[in-house]
Write a structure and sequence with these properties.
The complex is a heterodimer. The mean pLDDT of chain A is 96. Chain A has two domains: 75 residues, Ubiquitin-like (UB roll) (Roll), CATH 3.10.20; 71 residues, [2Fe-2S]-binding domain (DNA polymerase, domain 1, Orthogonal Bundle). Chain A is built from five helices and five strands, in the order E-E-H-E-E-E-H-H-H-H. In chain A, strand 3 and strand 4 form a beta hairpin. A five-stranded mixed β-sheet of chain A has the order 2-1-5-3-4, with helices on one face. By secondary structure, chain B is of the alpha+beta class. In chain B, strand 26 and strand 27 form a beta hairpin. The chains are: A alpha+beta, B alpha+beta. At the A-B interface, helix 1, helix 2, helix 3, helix 4 and helix 5 of A face helix 7 and helix 19 of B. The complex binds FE2/S2 (inorganic) cluster (FES) (2 copies). One FE2/S2 (inorganic) cluster sits at the interface of chains A and B.
Amino acid sequence: MNEISVQIKINNNNYERNIKPNTLLIDFLRDDLGLTGTHSGCDTSQCGACMVLHNNSAIKSCSILVAQLNNQEITTIEGLQDKDKLHPMQNSFRNNHGLQCGFCTPGMIISAISLFNENNDPTEDEIRKYLEGNMCRCTGYQNIVKSIEEGAKDMREKG
Amino acid sequence: MTKHDKNLKGITRREMLVGSAVAGTGLVVGYSGLPGAVGGAREALAAGSWDHQVFLTMDNAGIATVHITKAEIGQHVGTALAQAVAEELEVDWNDVRIDYPDTEEKWGFMITGGSWSVNWTFDRNSRIGASARIALIEAAAKMMGVPAAQCSASNSVVTDSVSGSSRTYSQILSTTTIDRTFSEDEMKALTLKKFGEYKVVGKNIPALDIPDKLIGEARYGIDVFVPNMVYGRLVTNPTRFGAVPLSADDSAAKSIDGYAGVAVIKEDPTGVNTGYVVALGETYWAAEKAAAAMKVTWDSGPNANTSSADIVQAAKDSIADESQGFTWVLEGDPEGAMSKADTTVEAEYETSLGYHGLMEPINCVAMESNGIWHLFTGSQFQGRFTAMTAAALGVDGKNVVLHQQYCGTGFGRRLEPDGAIISALAAQQIGRPVKLIYTREHDLRFDFHQTHTVQRVKAGVNSAGKIDAMSHVVAAGWATKRMAPGFLAESVDKKGKIDQFSTNGSDHWYDIPNHYVRSVENTTAMAATPPGQLRAVAPTWTWWANESFIDEVAHKIGKDPLDMRLSMLSATGKNAGTPPNTVGGANRLRNALIVAAGKSGYGVKPMPENTAMGIASVASQERGSPSWTAVVAEVHVDPSSGEPTLKKITVAMDVGTAVNPDGVLAQIQGSALFGSSRVLHENVTMTNGAIDQGNFDTWTPMRIHQAPEIDVTIIQNGHYPAGCGEPVVTCVGPAIANAVFNASGARVRSWPITAEKIKAAQRGA
Ligand code: FES
Ligand code: FES
């Protein structure tokens, strides 16, 4: 298979790589770049563990080709911090015990930030609707909702 | 597997060594295998003959690392176990770390499950912390030239109460040699703190491994990459168990870019399955395409005609045949009492096949290097993984090492070493490291499912409205018989062996003067659906039957189900309980029921139309190690469609002592959802030997927008800490079924509880 050249900005770093045209974003992130914080739970677009931010919105990296993102920018869980400072949404998940095994967590946090970007003061119902595509098998979801409510509040206040 | 009490006894037979090899190098704490077999701790360390289980290491900066041999599967157990050590060690919590060592004998027996982790190890870890503290105080006293008796430790500092001078742990550990042996009697005699005196235990300390998980730094099994590895992908066997590949034609696969060959395994001596075809690729994509292109001829094996209905029928037949199975409980004269009963009630309950539904599917990287096999994966039973992989490979068990990774959930699935065995066999065949990842379809179809169960329960009620006799037959696949036959239990009449872990829970805490339980192995289920341990195990089904049934009896004789339960929990005789684990006995279950009823407004709170509460209580997991738990479920049933909606779950749970209350709360919320999802949303069925469901579109767990409100009360009374990850799973099911009945008049006796079953029950079908 012939390789193609792509340019993609990930977490503020520019990558220029030759890749196979059928390379999925998730495999590129995990296998080629070692950014294993983006998780894979189903490969079929049903669990949300693989979400990354693209134009401020969550997309499922298991269902998009790197080639489709040529010359574009994405952010993964590894790119949310400001140096050693956690993103307010990460911080809120920590403070509210919003995770247990942590496998769904990157997807949850990315999805929550994406929700905030659309609606900066979501109600509990809106949070639950928006996160329908993010599965968690550990929590009772309550602490996740709490984490997102508080994280959104913190993000609002920090502007 | 073993019962907790064996383990607690086991450790006290040994000496404990606290020591450092060379002055100023910190210390190591561990139990010796045999008392007196080596010299002191220092000698053993210096000679390199330290062969003890190592639990705690401190470096010369005073950093204390507690070695956690339990899998981190989302329960944050490491933090709770470290809290127990830190409490007695009097170490500054900021200096506490945990790690997850690889398998070597020094780490001892490794298994995670059964809500046992904290329950097993609390006392042991407290004593480890205490002995290290004493050694540090003695060393500091010597440094200061004062008697140890007038010194005490707090916050990583030893202070002489007379002069007021002090030494930090770091100062001690960076200058002196510690060499202290505690005999068995000394270990036993250590005075430990009590409830009310704790500074670290009982605090909501954020789990130590949360930060890594928040920033994408935690490494799960699926995140492991090694040089020169290929990806492995299973070609789907035609049946769950028993199929053998006769040949694999890879001519079409050969043209796939990155195809790296095929491993055809026609025999697995460990019996995890009967054969595998693993397609290999330089990339995951290539392995996936190659698997699809592989033409495999299979012998489908002996289960190719088995379907769910056959498994159920086999169970029913074995229940009807009284010669089958063995007696698990026999109290009084059940037959005689039953024949004299005023009223009898009888019902049959089923639970469906259960899928663990790991978030991170089964995976393993297997690699051979200089004669040593390395396995990289998350495991809940490390010793089993290495021993069985060694057997499959035909190598010595010493030459297999497991490198523990974080687990994206576990629920008992990671007790099974199939991923390790298959990746290792494939790696052996092709001579390169193999990273095997199950697709979601494989994870679901080749799970070690929770067995399908059928139970028949019958009660004889006397004229005073009391249950005088109860008989209960449990028919299930026996996971323990498959996994660890040595742990089958003797039946009460000594006529045979019983899988206690498929039966427990039926030996409940109600006053039933004449009580009979028979446990039967469902051999059809055993053959076609190799049963595994799924979170909460037998109590998931035994309490489902018990607690649905108590409500049925109450309704039949016109009693309130809560009153009925309370009237049977007198906490007398065998239900009085004994220290430490069951002290208080059935009274603690009573209390939990009263708290849950009160918190939920049971019988008091006005309910909207077609909405009702249902109550249930359990003493899971085992009779010897219960967490006393009650649940009230609030359910709405749509009168036209029959659709049940779970509105709210109220939980009251007596855990004795909550080592980390925030962690306990999270575990309870999670288990409430897990159990509700299982009962209302999850179904696994078999047709012609194969599992019908293949992904999250057909196996549909409860999601965030469907989840109920969960209100939790943790009851603490200072008794020994009980496990908290599983009991609620076993209690929500019957509470929901009882609420459905109260809301709609429909008694559903099988899982999942669906609109169709509710409508059918309403029609009297
Ligand atoms: S891996 Fe992308 S949605 Fe599950
Ligand atoms: S925290 Fe484990 S799956 Fe969500």
